[in-house]
Amino acid sequence: MARQRNTTRLAGEASAEAAATQDRPTEDTSVDPAAGAFFDCDNTIMQGAAIFYLGRGLYKRKFFSTRELARFAWQQAYFRLHGAENAGHMADAKESALSIVQGHRAADLEAICEDVFDEFMAEKIWPGTRALVQMHLEAGQRVWLVTAAPQEAARVIAARLGMTGALGTVAETIDGVYTGRLVGEPLHGPAKAEAVKALAAREDLDLARCAAYSDSANDIPMLSLVGYPYVINPDSELRRHARRNGWRVRDFRTGRKAAKVGIPAAAGLGAAAGGTAAAVAIYRNRHR
């Protein structure tokens, strides 16, 4: 048990350290530096799972076999049908991904991730969640993506959405080449909470003034860290937990509000109810 806690903490700290070294916008527009927001990726930011889209992109570039692609496809189909993560599938995806990238250069994978975003991910982004990201940014707050996907993919997704940075799973490299091992463990469940805590310490964030968004009960540890937890497209367990704790819920899959819904506002700024719909409309108008 103690060893598991140590690898979880190591994964979180490694992810926070990697996030700290990412390029930031040259112009710092933060007017509320102690507050921020953390967004889960899979089924919160985008429909489906980023690692499986990455798998499709790597297959297209002949990184692995048709049989391995079929396994990725089955896991992705399960995720989309059930709207929930399966721990066995996540572990299998991790092992597959590590064996696939072993011996390849990290810089090459990040370049591939740029193309994979355009090919598979861009059209899967939920407009409502993207509008929430923009609301925080326009309120002068910093925003991070938090995902079990590789750090290289996480950085690309975050940059494309205009986020401050990303926390993702860190794979070990030597001289820029993947060894086939992780630093700690996948950034999943409690490891996400450890990463958020480590990043908050580095960035002087007050977690009581921060917001977090997720679809999965696996992320209850992360959601419980912040003063403003919000639930997006929830699985059944997280929906029940949110109802018991009075957390706000939004389901962009149906467009219908769940019980105790309030529009997730920039933390502490009191954006009016109905703000999500307005933000979506503004976002679409700006990007036509």
TrEMBL record:
Protein's UniProt keywords contain Membrane: yes
Amino acid composition bias (Low complexity), ranges on this chain: 11-20
Annotated region described as Disordered, given as residue ranges: 1-31
One GO MF term attached to the UniProt entry: hydrolase activity
Top-level taxon of origin: Bacteria
Pfam families tied to this protein: HAD (PF12710)
Membrane-traversing stretches: 261-283
SUPFAM superfamilies recorded: HAD-like
InterPro entries in the cross-refs: HAD-like_SerB, HAD-like_sf, HAD_hydro_SerB1, HAD_sf
CDD domains linked: HAD_PGPPase
Keywords per UniProt: Hydrolase, Magnesium, Membrane, Metal-binding, Transmembrane, Transmembrane helix
Family according to the record: Belongs to the HAD-like hydrolase superfamily. SerB family.
Name of this protein: HAD-IB family hydrolase
